Amino acid sequence: MARAKDKTRDRAAFMGPRLRRLRREMGLTQAVMAEDIGVSPSYIALMERNQRPMTAEMLLKLAQTYQLDVASLAGDRGEEFAARLDGVMRDPLFTDLELSPMDVEDVSRSYPAVAEAVLRLYTAYRDGQLALADHGGDGSDKMKSAPDPVAEARRFLSARRNCFPAIDDHAERIAADIARAFGSADNFESYFKEQHKLGVRRFPPDIMMGAVRRLDRHRGEIVLDETLDRASQNFQLALQIAYLDMRETIDEALGEGGFTSENSERLARRALASYAAGALMMPYRAFVKAAERRKYDIEALSRQFGASFEQIAHRLTTLQQPGQEGGPFFFIRVDAAGNVSKRLDGAGFPFARHGGSCPLWSLHQAFRTPREILTEWVELPDGEKFFTIVRTVTAGGGAYGAPRIERAVALGCAAKHAHRLIYTQGMEIKDAKPTPIGIACKLCHRIECAARAEPPIGRQVLPDDYRRTIAPFGFSDR
Q: In this structure, are 255 and 221 located in the same domain?
């Protein structure tokens, strides 16, 4: 114990890397700093190499000479680097190196520049992995192909954590005006009649000719497919309000996108119009308060706001307005074949940009128990844990013989927020055993996964002439 305390004191006294960083940030040579504080250049060099301790007197002299805060100068970035480096070293890519926590801590505290270099390289590596996954992982001429409009629109939403306060504020004002004028914030039909001189009519699918909503300026009406349920009708009417009355606000948000193709911008515009429709049906402040009060009970919120399970799940990904934050959630929707048709991220979940998701996730088992809510803890290869809520949803139908599409949706949040959800009440969160999942097979280095569909980028596949592993692929240590 005494030796451990001595080691802590030694670390506090020797501040070479921090002194060198400070000197370089101020653009000083060792000779100039030595002259400023009244010591020899060789003494500065010895302190920077941790061959001389940083005394309290020297610390005060530095603070007074360069007008620095003593606390910030003495502060240890080693803890920050140690935490970040430890997270990186938990990647399965490094499991065979057998690095101890003390090794990571020693590097982080004694050589913070090396720690930062490793973190930068790992970040660049991850970016490269994602870029390769986007283009098939072979580094071929596909890298030079035309931009993917779907991926570009998704990146636009993800970079803003699917939160657009200006759209929320505008929608909230419109909803308040509707409530004052017509007694209910969702009385969209009266709003159209008063504000736009438009009526609302409903027709069977054969008359709608494949449309669920159509604005008919000539007849002065909005026509809807009569087989839509109430939540879908409200959404379509709210969507038409977004296109008629919120166009400028949506255009301003799109102006920040820098899209490379017309298709990308159109897809992003559709996403923002849908966002605005959700904001009209579920005004931000009222929705955040209700969500907190009901502990994010999706079905209870669905009844309160007259919205579907999926609409509520969408809205829960948008609650990140500064000062009025709700729980941070991500959302993903897949079909029975595993195709991802929608993903929204307000929680920092590292979605694969292309392809499906991990087959070990209960998202893909939801089709066995339609409409039943499944909850699950999942853990990514880097050790980060999330709590997820999964259920199937139905699109279409509404009449006998009408085509239906069953999909599964998942809503999730980081483990540190899970205690806020009704789904974890009475659960011992610390004892939860998560399902180990990956982002996508190409990006997952869990080498013993029996569900793997393809090898991860950067790993050499072993021949199976003499030995076949339980997992679909064996990998070289190199």
A: yes
